[in-house]
Design goal:
The strands form 4 sheets. Strands 7, 8, 9, 10, 13, 14, 15, 16 and 17 form a 9-stranded mixed sheet that branches. Strands 3-2-5-6 form a 4-stranded antiparallel sheet, with no helix packed on it. It has helices at about 10-15, 20-30, 125-130, 155-160, 200-205, 235-240, and strands at about 10, 35, 40, 45, 55, 60, 70-75, 105, 115-120, 140-150, 160-165, 165-170, 175, 185-190, 210-220, 220-225, 230-235. A hairpin with a 6-residue loop joins strand 13 (about 175) and strand 14 (about 185-190). With about 250 residues, the chain is α+β, with helices and mostly antiparallel strands. The radius of gyration is 20 Å and the shape is elongated. It contains 6 helices and 17 strands. Helix 1 (about 10-15) crosses helix 2.
Length: about 250
């Protein structure tokens, strides 16, 4: 393997090529899922881009110089956040304009099939890790529509959280929306800077409320307000920075 001055750590190279984040790359390397020049890669390995052969899932990772791409999409219901799923025909990547479909993009934080709203697609593994890792406190905002009115007095239960299947489910902030009658509403705004699979749905379910609609409408201070469903835009530098900014509105 290369030891020249222009060599890169393998996990950094995988992130730059848009395969995954550095953190995920380390897991793949430890699992023996990455081959370099015909040998199973090890943590600490370095490669020379364009010269050393890197294999993942039987495919060679082809070196290409590409700039950072960050794509904000307003995901409709019925689409999954996956590059490939044999059980689902429609993925968020089908909604990307043809000009950008040649980029190796992946989701920086998923929404389940029945949820809608803001999804960030990028080829930048490090940026994706910054957005997804809870230690970075990136705030995601959701509008939750319920079948039953949610009482204002139960807001502290959302924030305190509950244990569900061995995991702690909670939100950081919550507030009622819409026409509030008797201090209750079917519309709730919640904020989180983490996010386990179906966490919001499970949290309300355990408390006795059925989620009719779940929409993520903002990350940081970047909002999809005015963006039609199924449409997205390439984010400019100032818009990317908004993903990591905070505001106190609840």
């Amino acid at each position: 393997m290369a030891t020249k001055t222009n060599s890169l750590r393998l996990q950094k190279y995988l992130a730059e090529m848009g395969v995954c984040s550095r953190r995920t790359a380390e897991v793949l390397i430890r699992d023996g899922s990455i081959m370099v020049n015909g040998k199973i890669a090890q943590i600490g390995d370095k490669i020379e881009p364009g010269i050393d052969e890197v294999i993942y899932e039987g495919q060679r990772i082809r070196h290409r110089k590409q700039g950072q791409a960050v794509f904000a999409l307003n995901k409709p219901k019925g689409f999954i956040c996956s590059n490939d799923d044999p059980h689902n025909d429609r993925t968020v990547f089908d909604l990307i304009p043809k000009d950008y479909q040649s980029l190796r993009l992946f989701c920086a934080g998923r929404l389940d099939k029945e949820s809608e709203g803001l999804v960030i697609l990028t080829n930048d593994g490090d940026l994706a890790n910054r957005l997804m890792h809870p230690s970075n406190l990136v705030v995601k905002r959701y509008q939750v529509s319920l079948k039953q009115p949610f009482p204002k007095k139960s807001i502290p239960k959302l924030i305190k959280g509950i244990n569900y299947e061995g995991e702690r489910m909670k939100v950081e902030k919550a507030a009622l929306l819409g026409n509030q009658s008797n201090d209750a509403s079917k519309e709730v705004d919640v904020q989180m800077h983490h996010g386990k699979k179906r966490e919001i749905r499970n949290l309300f379910m355990v408390l006795g409320y059925d989620v009719k609609r779940l929409k993520r409408y903002q990350i940081g201070t970047f909002s999809i307000k005015g963006m039609p469903k199924g449409v997205g835009i390439i984010l400019q530098k100032n818009e990317i920075q908004k993903l990591f900014k905070h505001e106190n509105t609840l």
